[in-house]
Amino acid sequence: MSENRREFFRVIFHQSIAGEISLDGAIFFMPVEIENVSVRGLKFISSMDIPLERQVTCRFEILGSPFLLEGSIIRKSVRLHDIEYGVGFEVNQDTSSELFKQLNYYQIRQRKGNPMEMD
């Protein structure tokens, strides 16, 4: 049962956070705006047209903790001036647990009104 709760636990940022992605294991990272994150994936906005099922590496920080996660584009929605993407992560249990912990801390701070104030 706790695994199901983790599957659907998602933090929606009031203001998108800065992140980066690289395609197919490339060393070049492109900036993106991340709108939400869960242990299973994230949603980001970009002006770049990326095909579905493309392998990506996502790099971002939650409360000062860096994450570098592999995944693939599982959803794509064209908007007026940009494109919204859904990424499904391929993560191990340790990384999943650490991301869950940081997202939980972030959500607690978000409810208290100071999610970006860290330390």
Query: Quick one: CATH class?
Result: Mainly Beta
Radius of gyration: 14 Å
CATH superfamily: predicted glycosyltransferase like domains
The percentage helix is: 10-25%
| Strand count | 6
Report the uncertain regions: 1-6
Q: Strand-residue fraction?
A: over 45%
Task: Please provide a written account of the structure.
With 119 residues, this protein is of the alpha+beta class. The protein has a single domain, classed as Thrombin, subunit H. The protein contains two helices and six strands, in the order H-E-E-E-E-E-E-H. It has helices at 2-8, 93-112; strands at 10-23, 30-38, 41-46, 55-62, 65-78, 83-89. It has a six-stranded antiparallel β-barrel. Strand 5 (65-78) and strand 6 form a beta hairpin. The chain is globular and about 35 Å long. It starts with a helix and ends in a 7-residue tail after the last helix. 21% of the residues are buried.
Keywords for this structure?
six-stranded antiparallel beta barrel; 49% strand; 119 residues; 2 helices; Thrombin, subunit H; disordered N terminus; single chain; alpha+beta
Short description:
The protein is an alpha+beta fold.
Write the layout of secondary structure elements.
Elements: H1 2-8, E1 10-23, E2 30-38, E3 41-46, E4 55-62, E5 65-78, E6 83-89, H2 93-112
Antiparallel strand pairs: 1-2, 1-4, 2-3, 3-6, 4-5, 5-6
Pfam family, one: PilZ
InterPro entries: PilZ_domain
Organism: Paenisporosarcina quisquiliarum
